[in-house]
Q: What sequence folds into this?
C-alpha cells in the first residue's frame, strides 16, 4: 500500500513538472510572437523594422522631460528639388529652436572626423580579433537634412544638429573642427539639449511652433510606396558608394620582404579607424602603405 502511494505521488510530480515546462514554453512562444507583431513588420516589407526606429523612439522618450513648449516629429521626409526625399529621424520643435537628430543605434567602437566622408564602426569578432564596418559620416548626412529643412521652412529659424549614438557603443575617437554639430551618446542628450535651450532662451512662440508643426507634419505621412522608393534609392547609393570606396590593391608585393599586402584597419594611435595596406608577414615585416582613394558620398 505504501509503495502504491509513493508511486502515485511520484507520477503526479512528474506530470506536474512536464505540464509546467509545456506551459512555460508556450508562454515564451506567445511573448515572442507578440513582441514581433508590436515591434516588427513582415519580412520584405518596405517599412521592415530595424534598430534605428527603436533608437528614434528612445530619443523622444529621453527628451520628454525637457521643460518648455515642444513637439516632436519622427521620420520626416523632406522633399528635394530633384523629386526625391531626405529622411530626418527626429525633429524637436522647441521654444529655443528646431533640433535635428540623426540617430545611430550602433554598438562597438566609433571613429570619425567631422569632414571625413566615411566613419568606422569596430566590432569584436572573437579570438581577440575585430571587424571594421564603414558608414557614411552622419554629420554630412545631417547637413543635408538641415539644408532641405531650411529650404522647406523658408524662414530664418535656429536649427541645431545632433548626432545621437546608442549607449551600447563607445565614441572612441570623434574629431570635431567646428561647433556646428554635437556628437554624443543618448545618455548625455537631455543634458546637452537642456543646456543649449537655457543658453539660447525662448525664440519661438507656442503659436509659431504649432504653425511649423502643421507645416511639417504631413511630411511624416508619406505612403508606403514613397517609403519603399526612398529605401531603394538609398540602397542604390550605398551600393554605388561601396563599389567606389573599396580601395584598389596596390600593384606588386611588399617591397621589403616580397610578401603579399593585405588591407588592415588601425585600432590605436592618431590613425585609429583608418584603413591601410600592411605586409602579410607582420610582425616580422612592418611595412605599411597609406590608402589614397577617396570614397564616394551618399546623401540620405
A:
Amino acid at each position: 500500500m505504501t509503495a502504491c502511494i509513493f508511486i502515485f505521488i511520484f507520477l503526479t510530480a512528474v506530470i506536474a513538472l512536464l505540464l509546467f515546462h509545456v506551459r512555460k514554453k508556450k508562454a515564451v512562444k506567445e511573448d515572442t510572437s507578440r513582441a514581433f507583431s508590436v515591434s516588427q513588420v513582415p519580412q520584405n516589407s518596405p517599412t521592415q523594422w530595424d534598430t534605428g526606429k527603436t533608437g528614434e523612439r528612445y530619443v523622444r522618450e529621453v527628451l520628454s522631460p525637457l521643460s518648455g513648449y515642444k513637439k516632436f516629429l519622427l521620420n520626416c521626409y523632406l522633399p528635394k528639388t530633384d523629386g526625391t526625399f531626405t529622411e530626418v529621424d527626429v525633429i524637436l520643435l522647441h521654444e529655443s529652436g528646431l533640433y535635428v537628430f540623426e540617430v545611430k543605434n550602433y554598438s562597438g567602437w566609433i571613429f570619425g572626423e567631422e569632414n571625413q566622408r566615411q566613419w568606422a564602426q569596430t566590432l569584436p569578432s572573437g579570438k581577440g580579433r575585430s571587424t571594421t564596418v564603414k558608414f557614411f559620416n552622419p554629420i554630412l548626412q545631417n547637413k543635408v537634412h538641415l539644408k532641405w529643412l531650411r529650404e522647406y521652412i523658408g524662414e530664418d529659424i535656429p536649427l541645431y544638429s545632433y548626432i545621437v549614438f546608442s549607449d551600447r557603443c563607445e565614441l572612441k575617437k570623434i574629431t570635431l573642427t567646428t561647433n556646428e554639430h554635437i556628437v554624443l551618446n543618448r545618455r548625455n542628450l537631455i543634458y546637452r539639449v537642456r543646456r543649449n535651450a537655457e543658453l539660447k532662451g525662448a525664440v519661438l512662440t507656442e503659436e509659431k511652433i504649432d504653425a511649423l508643426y502643421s507645416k511639417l507634419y504631413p511630411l511624416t505621412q508619406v505612403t508606403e510606396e514613397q517609403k519603399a522608393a526612398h529605401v531603394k534609392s538609398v540602397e542604390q547609393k550605398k551600393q554605388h558608394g561601396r563599389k567606389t570606396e573599396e580601395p584598389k590593391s596596390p600593384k606588386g608585393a611588399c617591397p621589403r620582404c616580397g610578401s603579399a599586402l593585405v588591407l588592415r584597419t588601425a585600432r590605436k594611435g592618431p590613425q585609429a579607424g583608418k584603413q591601410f595596406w600592411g605586409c602579410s608577414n607582420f610582425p616580422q615585416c612592418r611595412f605599411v602603405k597609406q590608402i589614397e582613394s577617396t570614397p564616394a558620398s551618399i546623401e540620405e
About this structure: The longest strand covers residues 70-79.
